UniProtKB/TrEMBL annotation:
UniProt gene name: aruC
Record-linked InterPro entries: Ac/SucOrn_transaminase_bac (IPR017652), AcOrn/SuccOrn_fam (IPR004636), Aminotrans_3 (IPR005814), Aminotrans_3_PPA_site (IPR049704), Class-III_PLP-dep_AT (IPR050103), PyrdxlP-dep_Trfase (IPR015424), PyrdxlP-dep_Trfase_major (IPR015421), PyrdxlP-dep_Trfase_small (IPR015422)
The family this protein is said to belong to: Belongs to the class-III pyridoxal-phosphate-dependent aminotransferase family. ArgD subfamily.
Protein name: Acetylornithine aminotransferase
Key word Cell inner membrane present: no
Assembly behavior: Homodimer.
Native species: Vibrio hippocampi
Pathway annotation from the record: Amino-acid biosynthesis; L-arginine biosynthesis; N(2)-acetyl-L-ornithine from L-glutamate: step 4/4
UniProt-listed Enzyme Commission number(s): 2.6.1.11
The organism's place on the tree of life at top rank: Bacteria
Residues the record lists as N6-(pyridoxal phosphate)lysine modifications: K254
Residues annotated for pyridoxal 5'-phosphate binding in this entry: G107, A108, F140, D225, E226, V227, Q228, T283
Length: 403
């Protein structure tokens, strides 16, 4: 293979495991909320790599951080610690309830650590019979066997043989169902403080309060999966801060590294003490490159003006989507918080979320879906008003082509 060999989409079908169905375009360059494909066609990015590119593409603070660290040291293993990991952990504890941090490489790994810690704590403090984990229908917590089983979408976890046991699912926002399920055998409740993959579904404030109270009543841990909602996505640094409810364990990833793979589990000292030396680990977790980038990202995202700007951008999106809806009558409701927005399709448009995504791509706009009936928007937290307006114009044209 020579340098001149053109890489094409056909290669995917020849060399990749077919668990994805990528679009025809292959982006090769990005800047801010714009990307360009191999043919130099320009796209506005409202997808943000699934809520990952919180500062857009190639933000100077990220480029500088990775360049600087790349010339120092890349990897050490956890036989030693490193400066970027310690600085990042210190900042995460200052920005949240947490006192201790465990670094991983992804949201699934952060959730795996959270679930293992909860079970470990319950076994050591209360005994082996306290092992039940309660989660929610349509929840999503990752693709490892433990996390995908805790996730509430059977289509993702079926077909791989016997599943990890003692996991129960109930409807999100259904307090009566939760009260009926809770007992002294409950080890933990795992929930997203705003369901992402499951359709961008917000929690009722009184439901979240009741979840915390039930955990306290039955000596169970509350695990918040903030993989998608964290790092400024909802306008608070973490979504729990806007709900007035503090979890015992929190997982974070996606936008934590702004596009560089990193995840983290945050918790209290008392719980962290149950992970003694040798009980859990990760080869790459906390590596200097990832932590240096993540530190630069959270320094930027945690600025008051960036967090305040999220609500402002949410308003631009809601206003623009309402205008599109007045013209074409496609959306039943616009839901979500901050820059995790779901446009739920109405009766006539059921099942057509992917049609909208594909049409948008043809008109130079990158979108996401959350199930078959919800179009999802998770753009950069610093996207400009001009980019938002340009993208919404393209969405207008895409929907017009489908009417």
């Amino acid at each position: 293979m020579t340098m001149e060999t053109a890489v094409t989409r056909e290669w995917f079908d020849e060399v990749m495991v077919p668990c994805y169905n990528p679009m025809e375009i292959i982006p090769v360059k990005g800047s801010g909320a714009r990307v360009w494909d191999q043919q130099d066609n320009e796209y506005i990015d409202f997808a943000g790599g699934i809520a990952v590119s919180c500062l857009g593409h190639c933000h100077p603070v990220m480029v500088n951080a990775i360049t600087e660290q790349a010339n120092k040291i890349w990897h050490l293993s956890n036989v030693m610690t490193n400066e970027p990991a310690l600085r990042l952990a210190k900042k995460l504890t200052e920005l949240s309830f947490a006192e201790r941090v465990f670094f991983a490489n992804s949201g699934a790994e952060a959730n795996e650590a959270a679930l293992k810690l909860a079970r470990r704590w319950a076994t050591e403090v209360h005994g082996p019979e306290k092992s039940e984990i309660i989660a929610f229908n349509q929840g999503f917590h990752g693709r490892t066997f433990f996390t995908v089983t805790v996730g509430g979408q059977a289509s993702y976890s079926d077909g791989f043989g016997p599943k990890p046991g003692d996991i129960k699912h109930i409807p999100y926002n259904d307090l009566a169902a939760l009260e009926a399920q809770m007992s002294d055998k409950t080890c933990a409740i795992m929930m997203e403080p705003l369901q992402g993959e499951g359709g961008v579904v917000s929690p009722e404030p009184e439901f979240v309060q009741a979840v915390r109270e039930l955990c306290d009543k039955y000596n169970a841990l509350l695990i918040f999966d903030e993989v998608q909602t964290g790092n400024g996505r909802t306008g608070d640094f973490y979504a729990y801060q806007g709900l007035g409810v503090t979890p015992d364990i929190l997982s974070t990833a996606k936008s934590l590294g702004g596009g560089f793979p990193i995840g983290a589990m945050l918790t209290t000292k008392a719980l962290a003490d149950h992970f003694k030396v040798g009980t859990h680990g990760s080869t790459y977790g906390g590596n200097p490159l990832a932590c240096a980038v993540a530190e630069a990202v959270i320094d930027e995202v945690s600025k008051p003006e960036v967090l305040a700007g999220v609500a402002e951008r949410e308003a631009w999106f809601r206003e623009g989507l309402e205008q599109i809806n007045q013209k074409y009558g496609v959306f039943q409701e616009i839901r979500g918080k901050g820059l995790l927005i779901g446009a739920a399709l109405n009766e006539e448009w059921q099942g057509r979320a992917r049609d909208v995504l594909v049409a948008a791509g043809k008109h130079g706009l990158l979108l996401l879906v959350a199930g078959a009936n919800v179009v999802r928007f998770t753009p950069s937290l610093v996207i400009t008003q001009q980019e938002v307006e340009e993208g919404l114009t393209k969405l207008d044209q895409a929907i017009a082509s489908l009417v």
